């Protein structure tokens, strides 16, 4: 069977749309889902404080540099979730929030996670009050009404 130019062009015309239809699908599978929040996990381990950033990349770079790189890609309003293990210290919470704030993010939310019990609770820090043994009655929330 001889392949003539007309027969070859028909094969090309039929297979080209199939190849074009497959190419975007494979590219979409390899892209990172940028809608997922940036997650900073805070844990206490035997050697000290462990801060794990998701998405993981540029592991040889310091945490602040990796947060800055993500900020340049996604913007300062991109959601950041800080997950603090219930075994961490209160100062660990402030350290993690400090990294996120120093990188320039404006929409971070902090949660204390109890993996053993299977729940988490959001932390909301209000304005500081003077240290006293008789504080004023608490308010339901910190933000504006």
Which keywords apply here?
about 140 residues, 2 domains, 3 helices, about 25% strand
User: What is the helix/strand order?
Assistant: HEEHEHEE
Oligomer: single chain
Span of the ends, CA to CA: 81 Å
Number of domains: 2
Word description of this protein:
36% of the residues lie in helices and 23% in strands. The chain is an alpha/beta fold. The chain has two domains: 1-31; 38-123. It has a five-stranded mixed beta sheet with strand order 2-1-3-4-5, with helices on one face. α2 (63-74) crosses α3 (90-103). The chain is globular, with a radius of gyration of 25 Å.
What is this structure's SSE topology?
Layout: H1 5-30, E1 38-45, E2 48-54, H2 63-74, E3 80-85, H3 90-103, E4 108-114, E5 119-123
Parallel strand pairs: 1-3, 3-4
Antiparallel strand pairs: 1-2, 4-5
Helix pairs in contact: 2-3
What would a concise description of this structure say?
This protein is α/β, with parallel strands linked by helices and 145 residues long. The chain has helices at residues 5-30, 63-74, 90-103, and strands at 38-45, 48-54, 80-85, 108-114, 119-123. Helix 2 (63-74) crosses helix 3.
